[in-house]
Amino acid sequence: MTSNRGSFAGVRTGELALERTDAGLAVLTISGEHDLSTAPNLRRRLATLLDEGTPTIVDLSPATFIDSSILGVILDGRRRAAEAQLGFAVLHANGANAVDRVLEVTGLRAELPVHARREAAASAASVNSGKPVP
Fold first, then answer.
1. Is residue 128 scored above 70 in pLDDT?
2. Where are the alpha helices (DSSP H) in 39-130?
3. Distance of alpha carbon 20 from the chain centroid
4. How many CB atoms lie within 10 A of CB 113?
5. Cα 111–116–120 angle (5° rounding)?
6. Cys-Cys with 120: which of 29, 42, 67, 115 at CB 3.0–4.6 Å?
7. Phi, psi angle pair for 30, to nearest 5°
8. What's 132's DSSP letter?
9. Percentage of the chain surpassing pLDDT 70?
10. What are φ and ψ of residue 114, in 5° steps?
């Protein structure tokens, strides 16, 4: 597992951690607070995974805050994955209420869709990519 920590003007921002599963999926976990200052790093990490042809799960469960720039990166990642016929799923299992509210208010919980269980997200990412579900 790898992670990145960032800071912006001395304020500690959230982290990104990457896990590669035995099933060939990448799980990119977003923890802490993420906003416009961390969006470029998230965009780069997602682009790398998608350019590799790796079905990806974005796990928002440990995130405490995300803003519209992060939602834009996730939506762009989903679009790129669909164009490349790669699996892509979003997970938010028992995460922060602030993140849950953003997903509900924007309507993205249903649009993405956002899965409440890792197994469901893995299944969706596997099915979408044409890879068999483990």
1. no
2. 39-51, 68-83, 97-106, 108-111, 118-128
3. 13
4. 14
5. 85
6. 115
7. -105, 115
8. P
9. 85
10. -100, 130
